[in-house]
UniProtKB/TrEMBL annotation:
Sequence ranges assigned to domain Baseplate J-like C-terminal in this UniProt record: 273-350
Family indicated by similarity: Belongs to the Mu gp47/PBSX XkdT family.
Domain spans labelled Baseplate protein J-like barrel: 91-170
Protein name: Baseplate J/gp47 family protein
Top-level taxon: Bacteria
Residue ranges annotated for the Baseplate J-like central domain, each copy included: 193-266
Amino acid sequence: MPFERPSLTELATRADADFDARLPKADSRQRRSVLGVLGRVHAGAVHGLYGFLADNALQGLPDTATGEVLLRWAATFGVEIKVAEPAAGLVNLTGSNGSEVDAGAVLQRLDGTEYVTTAGAVIADGVAQVPVEAVVAGAGGLAIAGVALTFASPVAGVSAAAFVAAAGLTGGVDAESPEAVRGRLLDRLRQPPHGGNAADYVRWAREVPGVTRAWVYPLMNGLGTVGVTFVMDGREDLIPEVGDVADVAAWIADRRPVTAEVEVFAPDPVPLDLTIDLTPDTPEGRLAVEAELRDLLARDAEPAGTILISRIREAVSIAAGESDNVVTSPTANVTHAAGELAVLGTITWS
């Protein structure tokens, strides 16, 4: 029988009935009755105890556990929590020849995000490159090439302005959310290790920080070969970079069967362009539709998969503020080849 927590009102009613039953001629229901007050105080205390029991009942199973108990469940089954990692990369400097920048110098982005140099550099021919790392770990430290940074404190002979180098600042990953941990834990319970089956490769790929979804292609290049591709939904661009692919390949290489030849690759993004007649057509409505479509692709898009036109229409229809719509393009299900992944393209509002 499932555990049911009594309401505060039910407990107060029980307390009143107990007082009346055990004290001759007592009536705890009278206005300003001392017994009535005691009954409600008692009910409040017991209600808190029932709350503790209700929470304990949830912690007893991994699909409802929370907080530290969820992490202990995960650790018990070898599911390691993915911690936040800082973004890092190279920054271009300019200044007078021979001027030095020491390790530990702090640079700031326009939004206040701080980076620290992890090694020194010397200006030569008016320029230099210095490696930096975000002070706060997470995806917030990611930056594309050309983003301007400024030294927090002046460095003699070096221009205060610096710019992110061509490769950008990469590798920043947010800490794994509790629900993501729960999802991987349940996958581990439902798909125990099988010595290298498809589920094992998906689990290994998702153990790498930042990886949220992965797909496996058995026998992709013949006997003994396996293909693995993945995405990183926590980033603005979910398609993995070269370094991400290398990280996943290295992680899987230490866990795969020795006879397996594994190829890890990034999926090819294929823009899903749409034409939508939205009513009412407002900036807020357009943003809501776009958010619903991104959420749809995060759920349904997969290599060699199909995006159903009915699901597209549903996503537009449930957007906040929408009262009517017509999706004029696409007009049918959209199917992608192996290795191709649907991403949101251009939305034309008609």
